[in-house]
Fold each of these.
Amino acid sequence: MLVRIILSLLNIEQNSINYSTIIFSNQYSIISLFLQTIGKPTIHSEGCSASVGSVDVRFHGGASWLYNIFDDQISHAIKGQLTKILCAEANKAVDGDAERSLARTKLVTSIKKTGVLDYSMLSDPIFATGYVDSYHKGEIYMFGSHREAPFHPDTFPEAFNTSSMAYIWVSDYLMNTAGYALQNEGILQYYLTPEDLKPKDRDILNTTCSGNSHCIGNFIVTLMDHIPNSVIHINMSTSIAPTLNIVNGKMFGKFQGFMTYFAKLPNNTIKYLFNTTVAANVSLTASVHGQNLTATVTKITPEITLTDTKIGDIHSKTLNWTFNTMSQAFIKPKFNELGATGLPLPGNEQISFENPILKLVDNAIMLGTDLVWHPKFKVNLNKKSQEVDNTLYVKSKSSGENHIGQNIVNTMNVVKDLGKLFG
């Protein structure tokens, strides 16, 4: 299990809908949610039983005094019609609107046109008392190169809160498959030049310093003495796939690699200088923006070793200064730029998160959230098709709230059939 989604079920057996002075209650519907062979869910109605508790009709104006004499007979007739309409509309809503909406759920997403984020379902959802539980793949791989990672995810903790409507558990396995895929494709390398830095930071890579500039030539004096007026280039690459772990409420990553230093001389030739290995621990925080899981690098702690040099020995403090300076000017901002984009969570364009709460548990990130549904219905009014944006707010069961927006399609059909009844 790589990604887990738990959806709390509301008590829908005793809802009332008020439309003018017509009141009805108690609708029961049986639906089935299951897995298609392509890893996407589908839904259909397996049965429906509707019982109208009461109908109270009062006419106003005109000859209402006459119509109200027959209000009991009219109420009885409307009650019979509503019983038929309710299940017809419920089945149509599930088999039509709900199925189309579910089909739009993004379970496979492109990432920057180079990778694929796969949330395909692994099995049919599990219906338990009060919630639905589903398990998803949760893996990242590159286009045209789908290799299974040689490691496996840890299991999710069993206990979960029930104060939110939905819970999404994301295993750190997902992020680690990204590191594995990127390493295999040779993507985790970068040739750094002054043009990659902000204008105010570009003189850091100069071998000859101007004024009070903190450039590399002030720290590695050999550079200033032997190759003045030159610019440093750094080739950075990872040697193994980076990893991410979540333990004791903290998220940290590790990467190992090389930083190889070159000098671009005044005559534009490139000269090799020295090579270092880098092993770094990275502290991160996670957050949710919209429906994306984002991350921010807060600290990078390196361990640097000089492995080869053409300019003599270089003190470890100097190597650390060089790395930390590059980290602040380029590495950390680059990580955070990618982290701000984040990874899309399983979702639907018509559903947004409300009051999301993020928690780090061992080997996983848990997101608890209420959901807001923004359905769009097409309604025929005076033979003109109008698209209506309706918002349906669904709160958690424990909050005691269940504010459901009026379904315009159902209402218009009720009115239409009532018109036939009295026509």
Amino acid sequence: MWNLNNYQILFFPGIDFTDPSYHLPHFYELFALWADEEDRSFFQAAASSSREYLALTCHPITGFSAEYAEFDGTPMSRKLPWTDQRHDWFYSDAYRTVANIGLDYEWFGVDCGQRAAADRIQEFLLEACREGEYHTYEIDGRVADLSVMQQSGSADSMRNSGNSITPASIRAAATIATMLPIVCLYPFLQRYFVTGLTIGGVKE
């Protein structure tokens, strides 16, 4: 499951690329503590490698990562023999990446540059969250052709479903690791706390 030269997890055994959302340094840290003694140094190296990789593969402006990516962090745009679908955009698997970054930072507080992706996603999706827009994006933030955030179902069904993945839910995952000012976070939080937020002595 891992490339033994760069300590990066593989999309599946024997393949020559990775999936950014598969990089789970917070779990590798635990494996380094509790795995068989002879495996612990490998998992410690894998944790460090994954944090560095996540900093590399997340876009420096949007914070987005691709579904699948090369070992150098660039989106994996090669044609695959088992599908005609593309996997080099911010879609599907890529929605998990920022949640993993957030959980890792919450548990271990180690930042190799990857935590900035959470801030960037928050900032980039803020206006989309306010407007209730649903898009699929290139990792540089350009809107792609599709207008839904999931691989199945219509745009309307996604908007009406409690299980839909929206800009708001992606930003919720990013909140774990972000340090954005409350003035930026407030419109997002207000939407999900129906009882309102207390600001000083006033509840909105």
Amino acid sequence: MVQANLTVLRLLEAYTVKLDRASREPCLSITNLRQTEQWNWYGEGDDMIWIDQDPNEWPPCLHGTGTEDYFNTAWCPTQAVSAPYHGIPLPGGPNWSGQISLYRLHIEDPVLFERSIRVTIEHGHANKRADDYASTAYWYQTEPHARFPALQTVDARLPVVLSDSSGA
């Protein structure tokens, strides 16, 4: 069974997808929507994945070098990109302003977990960007499983309204 979990995080909070789920299937995929009033490259900010371990334990199982590498966009694209396992359907405005949507499908490089997984990506280097993030994670769920947490309220899931999403 495929399950999806939507987590919306407000400004200056670490972008986090946390799944306390049992799964032995080889798939974790993440889509990400970023909206900003700031301009300039959004790619800095380490990606970290804790697999079947305490999320307070350091270091995480996987510790990458940033959003641009996690989503395979280190070449700083400014146009829409669609590759088999990653892409940018919404590239944003001039100098990476406004809304940007990215996806990464772990098909050829599966992230396997049995008990829990926590995925975080900093908001810029050392969490110093004030962007609004929304994300969806997909995974194959084994049965039986623990009860899913309640969804956030609709108000908590709505994006922050920016005064000017053009970045000007």
Amino acid sequence: MTLQIGSLVHKYILAMAGLRLLTVTLAIFLLAGHIGAGDVAVPEKSEDVAAPSYRLLFWLPLSSRSHYIVFKPLLDELARRGHKITLLSSHKDKDLCGKPHVECDTIDSDITQVVSSKDVFSGNQFAMWGESAINTTNHVAGCFLKPHTVTGNPVEKIITPLLKAQTDAYQNKMVQKHIKNETHFDLVLTLGFLPDVGLYLAQHVFKSPICILFPGLRLPTISQAMGNTVNPAILPNPLLSYGPKMDFMQRVINTGMHALISGMSEYFFKPKIEEATKELLGIDHSPDLLGIFNDAAFHIRVSHPVFEDSFPELPNTAWVAGLQTRPAKRIEDDGVRKWLDEAKNGVVYISFGTV
């Protein structure tokens, strides 16, 4: 009985994943055809499929393997449908890059340089700052501004690999080729962590609408960029463990967290990134990267309302929980398969993200 229920649940998840994938793909088609329609070229016909073919840039210079895995099915499906994909990532994907209409390149950068699994499991307070911030606002500020057990300022540990990644990405030969040719992309898709030079290139060089990808729960900065209401008095920050019914002190801490994140983004990260971008581009003014980020046309989030609190949201966000779900494969290792088959009470599989 348990196996039958599990099978039904698995089939339901696969069906939902397929539906979500189709929804996201259609959403991208709509974006490319209707958002910034004055800049969107007439789509070309693919040689392999009858459907129109669009040119898409996936700008992922700073991402972890787990983040890439989540959105890989989207890349694979778009490539299968004959769309012309340009991918800049920190992870090699031999299967995707061997497909027609796909060009890829990688840079030596990974978000795991910021926080490693060793930091998390050793109880590092920076890696677990959301949990340690619950007690007092001092903890909230301390998680950003105190070194704790991490060597150096934790904020510097975030900004340093980001600046290196954007420099490497901008100087990449494939990217420079498209900059020189002023290639028009119908859509640029990028992870929504911190704004970088990719946003400037999308808006000012490639003349493209922007789609923000995010592999987790709602963040205030992305909600604001999408035009959604972010009221810390009623909407708990997902980095805290508060439910929808917050008491007065929790509301105070939640508001402090919101102000801290917004302040760090506006007064610390933004000036540093924009100054570095100004030098990188060789221009005489600091580009408004945060402004470009806030002008993003669409947001794809790997989550579902059942995992988050109830809150109003505009229809420019696609919920794609289960996007990374794939059909099950037979376990080739005889020993592991025998061990699983002989488990009288079933097996609980636990994953910490990167698998």
